[in-house]
Amino acid sequence: MGLKKIRTGLLELRLMILSSKKNIVKLAFSAIYYPICEDPQVQRSGIITVLVNGSQKEAIAELVAASWLLSKEKVFNEKMNGENLQIIVSHRETYINAIGQVDTPSPVHRYTRIFKTRFIGCEWLLDSCDKPIMQAKRPIRVGINAAYEELYNTVTCPNIEYPLVISEHALLRFCIRNSGGTPKRPWLAMARMLGKKTMKEIELPEEIKQLQYSKHNEETIILNNGGAMYFVCTPTCQQGKIKYLTVVTTYLRGSFELKERIETYGSVNPKAWLTN
Predict the structure, then answer these.
(1) 68 part of a folded domain
(2) Residue 207 and residue 105 share a domain
(3) What totals of helices (H) and strands (E) does the chain contain, helices first?
(4) Chain centre distance of CA 254
């Protein structure tokens, strides 16, 4: 079977580190689409300069650049299955973190979240050759800041002041508790539900509220759009201000109906009702 046939319908996102000085990493990239029965098409290419602090900056820069290209530049049609996406990186540390070959979570690990939620099933490869990056007709040049990486993968809710970031755990619970079964594209399905105009913060009975505080923190809020699914969110702050809300898990309506639970279970400890 030829390489072209194997790659039919695939988008290949390739990144290569050009230089790394102090807190600035410069990368070249190309996004190549392999359509059916046609020659490969270079859809995007260019240079990305990433501002990043701390250790493992080259690996973080590659992951942040890939995240920005997929979420903001939209080089990949997210309505397609993540298995149609192949990401080729030039730094070994990027690769081993992306595929999960790390003994303990490193500072790089959190930058892989987008690929485990929004682009599930994408294939990672480590570039074994130094062939030049293919160029599009109009290459782009852009600078991005790794400190805002989470905001590249957010959901906007009309009635909520802050952007929402879907955690891997919340997405898993959403798939398990979704009445229609596991959606074909789970992140998109959950994002659409969160983005509805009817979605708003709700008040819970004091007993349940205190239980949520003990499980998460006192700034926990619950979102609901009138349906059976509830979304538990906790704020992430920077310099004393809320930067975004992380959706940490989901519950179904019965988990919050206190009277019904007490009538059913008597004096059973409420923590037994709200299993993660």
Answers:
(1) yes
(2) no
(3) 8, 11
(4) 28
Q: What is the SS3 assignment for 155-212?
A: ECCCCCCCCEEECHHHHHHHHHHCCCCCCCCHHHHHHHHHCCCCCEEECCCHHHHHHH
Is residue 175 within 8 A of residue 183, CB to CB? The reply is yes
What type of residue is 100? Answer: G
Q: What is the pLDDT of residue 89?
A: 94
Per-residue pLDDT tens over the stretch 44-83: 899 999 999 888 899 999 999 999 999 888 888 877 778 8
- Phi, psi dihedrals of residue 68, rounded to the nearest 5°: -65, -45
What is the C-alpha separation between 114 and 57, in angstroms, rounded?
18
What is the C-alpha to C-alpha distance for residues 158 and 77, in angstroms, rounded to an integer? 24
**How far does Cα 268 stand from its chain's mean position?**
37
Distance from C-alpha of 156 to C-alpha of 231, rounded to nearest angstrom: 14
Q: How far apart are CA 263 and CA 273, in angstroms?
A: 13
**Domain boundary residue among 149, 173, 201?**
149
Based on the structure, what is the number of domains in the chain?
Answer: 2
pTM score = 0.79
